[in-house]
């Protein structure tokens, strides 16, 4: 690439990271056009075309983000904003005859714990967030509860016809403008207020509802998210045990704020209902843990000395509903993923993977995130690592990913980091839902042949496979040598794997693979039906991926509980049998061979099965008659699976290559009692 084009491309990346998507899109498209012009005029324009393709992919990604801006201006934007419309009143407010009334006078008073009242609205999470901030202010001398409301004089809100409320959402503090009208009836505020009558919480409540595009019948709130909007502190959700008891005085489905926790493990809770005779409730920590299902806590971002963030989006109809980033740094890092307000509801998660040179794993410092329908997800990892943000079962959505650390840290977009990429869609259905390797049906899982070409002479190519499925499906990706359908997996054949089964997503990454042919197996932990998308990337010069046909494709499939079969082979044929039991006897017209696979069979008994060898084409003269005698018995938990695929010729076992299919010509009455045809040549426990 020419130096001036490199400069423009670097500027495009900087603009994209800064959120200037219009400028980044223009720079990307300018560089792509000049690279294509250069490729046409050059005798060898392969490098220019390759770089143009990569930049074009980034341009397409940026194009999806253009115009997807927040409805609200950034807080430091000097442009004046028109006041928001009035949220619809709740049924309770309407019943009381409430109407929007301008505040006659603005009397500010600081809030003490228990002072914030909910009013006639079902927005307890919003009120609890203001109450929580007030409790923090009283204990630590901060000013979180009312600091969001402007104009101010000497740090205290003052009266005005129009107010600006600073709320944190969509990745930064934003300006929400409201007028001074609040719901009131018979001289009393019907929204959030202090018990002494101070009205300033009602203005903050009104701004919250406008951001949520909600009425005062606000349902489905999230206290951790609301505290974040008010203070900018990062929310984390701690799951408690399923509730099976309730402390006297607690209301089911209600949100409470925690005002204090003393050394005797006594918790002080605040009920924001205005009609509560005593809003303060005290209980033991143990009682709290059995009375609530989730504890929301928020962390001060100023606790870390370094931070960075990136913004991105998911397309709801995309097969690959994930975005990858490279997290660089040293030491512990806290990652915060926020789904933007106007995005459609979906389940989101943030994952981190560490590489040991062959396999990405989450055991050593990595973290598999949990899919949540909340707008925030928080995990802690060790840098450096690869970070993946993903969504499940949602439409178009945008997000902000932030990283916090006590050491310098950076997030870089890793999209299209490898030269070649293929995306396929598939499903586990009925027969192909094989489960993990401990199931006899593992061999039926979706499998793919991956052909990897050579790469730069100085290093071996990299291969990466990322699979997505439903958020509640535990999935794994396994890369083995061979290129043909596998029935069993030996450690020596494994090139890379995604590690332990993880829900919704699995990443299999081999940092260096020999050019050749491999088999990629996608499996669920238990046999179950689900759809999936698969993205395979490589730095090799060429990459091809093909679906391996189901086992026994083009062959007869028959199941039987009988103890013997008689096959007349009138033409070249392969005989393949999967057998569950304690013994199998295979005999031909020229001899008799017995292989015992019972639980008492020794390794020496199994060892005569020879390793794979090239298949030979048989004729009817080679094998005029084959008998397969199976001594069946009841199966116990300790019984093993015997998989045999051999040709019996002159009394000897001759192995057959996997994947070779032949047409079996035999009478119907024989087929009706025939076992399942397959193409396996392994004999393992």
Q: How would you describe the overall organization of this protein?
A:
The chain is an alpha+beta fold and 685 residues long. It is 17% helix and 34% strand. It has eleven helices and 40 strands. Helix 1 packs antiparallel against helix 2, helix 2 packs antiparallel against helix 3 (46-65) and helix 5 (124-140) packs across helix 8 (223-231). Residues 356-366 and 580-685 have low confidence and may be disordered.
Considering the chains and any ligands shown, give keywords for the structure.
685 residues, alpha+beta, Jelly Rolls, seven-stranded antiparallel sheet, six-stranded antiparallel sheet, 11 helices, globular
Quick summary of this structure?
With 685 residues, the protein is of the alpha+beta class. The chain contains eleven helices and 40 strands.
The share of residues in extended strands comes to: 25-35%
Structural class: alpha+beta
Number of helices: 11
Low-confidence stretches: 356-366, 580-685
Question: How confident overall, as mean pLDDT?
Answer: 75
Radius of gyration from CA coordinates: 33 Å
What is the helix fraction of residues, given as a range?
A: 10-25%
The figure for the number of domains is: 5
Dominant shape: globular
The count of strands amounts to: 40
Organism: Malassezia cuniculi
GO molecular function, one term: nucleic acid binding
Keywords: Hydrolase, Protease, Thiol protease
Protein name: Cysteine protease
């Amino acid at each position: 690439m020419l130096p001036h084009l490199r400069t423009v491309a670097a500027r495009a990346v900087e603009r994209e990271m800064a959120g200037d998507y219009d400028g980044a899109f223009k720079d990307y498209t300018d560089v792509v056009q000049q690279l294509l012009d250069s490729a046409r005029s050059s005798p060898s324009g392969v490098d220019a075309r390759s770089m143009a393709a990569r930049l074009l992919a980034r341009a397409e990604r940026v194009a999806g983000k253009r115009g997807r801006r927040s409805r609200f201006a950034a807080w430091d934007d000097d442009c004046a904003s028109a006041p928001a419309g009035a949220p619809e009143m709740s049924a309770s407010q309407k019943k009381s005859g409430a109407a929007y009334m301008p505040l006659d006078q603005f009397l500010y008073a600081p809030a003490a714990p228990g002072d914030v009242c909910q009013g006639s609205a079902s927005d307890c999470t919003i009120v609890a967030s203001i109450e929580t901030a007030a409790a923090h202010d009283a204990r630590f001398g901060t000013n979180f509860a009312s600091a969001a409301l402007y104009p101010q004089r000497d740090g205290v809100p003052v009266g005005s016809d129009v107010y600006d409320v600073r709320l944190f959402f969509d990745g930064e503090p934003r300006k929400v403008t409201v007028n001074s009208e609040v719901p009131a009836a018979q001289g009393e505020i019907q929204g959030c207020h202090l018990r002494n009558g101070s009205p300033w919480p009602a203005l903050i409540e009104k701004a919250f509802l406008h951001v949520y595009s909600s009425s005062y019948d606000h349902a489905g709130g999230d206290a951790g998210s609301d505290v974040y909007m008010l203070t900018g502190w990062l929310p984390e959700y701690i799951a408690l045990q399923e509730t099976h008891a309730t402390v006297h005085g607690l209301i089911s489905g209600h949100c409470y704020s925690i005002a204090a926790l003393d050394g005797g493990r006594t918790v002080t809770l605040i009920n924001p209902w205005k009609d509560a005779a005593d809003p303060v409730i005290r209980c033991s920590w143990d009682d709290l843990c059995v009375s609530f299902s989730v504890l929301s806590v928020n962390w001060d971002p100023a606790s870390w000395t370094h931070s960075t963030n990136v913004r991105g989006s998911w397309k709801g109809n995309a097969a690959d509903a994930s975005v990858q980033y490279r997290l660089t740094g040293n030491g512990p890092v806290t990652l915060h993923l926020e789904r933007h307000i106007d995005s459609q509801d979906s389940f989101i998660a943030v994952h981190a993977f560490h590489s040991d040179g062959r396999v990405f794993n989450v055991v050593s410092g990595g973290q598999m995130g949990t899919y949540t329908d909340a707008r925030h997800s928080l995990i802690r990892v060790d840098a450096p690592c690869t970070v993946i943000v993903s969504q499940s079962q949602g439409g178009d959505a945008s997000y902000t990913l932030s990283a916090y650390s006590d050491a310098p840290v950076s997030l870089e977009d890793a999209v299209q980091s490898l030269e070649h990429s293929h995306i396929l869609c598939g499903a586990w259905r009925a027969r192909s839902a094989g489960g993990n390797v401990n199931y006899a049906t593992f061999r039926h899982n979706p499998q793919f042949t991956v052909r990897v070409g050579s790469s730069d002479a100085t290093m071996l190519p990299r291969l990466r496979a990322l699979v997505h499925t439903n958020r509640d499906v535990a999935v794994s990706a396994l890369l083995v040598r061979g290129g043909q359908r596998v029935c069993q997996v030996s450690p020596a054949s494994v090139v890379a794997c995604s590690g332990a089964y993880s829900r919704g997503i699995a990443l299999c990454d081999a940092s260096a693979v020999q050019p050749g042919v491999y088999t990629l197996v996608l499996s669920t932990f238990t046999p179950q039906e689900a759809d999936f998308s698969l993205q395979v990337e490589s730095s090799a010069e060429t990459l091809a991926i093909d679906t391996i046909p189901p086992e026994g494709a083009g062959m007869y499939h028959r199941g039987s509980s009988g103890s013997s079969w008689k096959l007349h082979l009138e033409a070249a044929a392969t005989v393949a049998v999967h057998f569950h039991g304690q013994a199998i006897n295979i005999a031909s017209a020229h001899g008799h061979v017995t292989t015992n696979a019972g639980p008492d069979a020794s390794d020496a008994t199994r060892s005569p099965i020879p390793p794979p060898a090239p298949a030979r084409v048989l004729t009817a003269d080679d094998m005029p008659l084959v008998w397969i005698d199976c001594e069946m018995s009841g199966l116990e938990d300790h019984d093993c699976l015997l998989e045999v695929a051999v040709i019996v010729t002159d009394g000897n076992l001759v192995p057959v290559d996997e994947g070779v299919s032949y047409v079996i010509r035999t009478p119907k009455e024989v087929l009706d009692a025939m076992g399942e045809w397959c193409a396996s040549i392994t004999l393992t426990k």
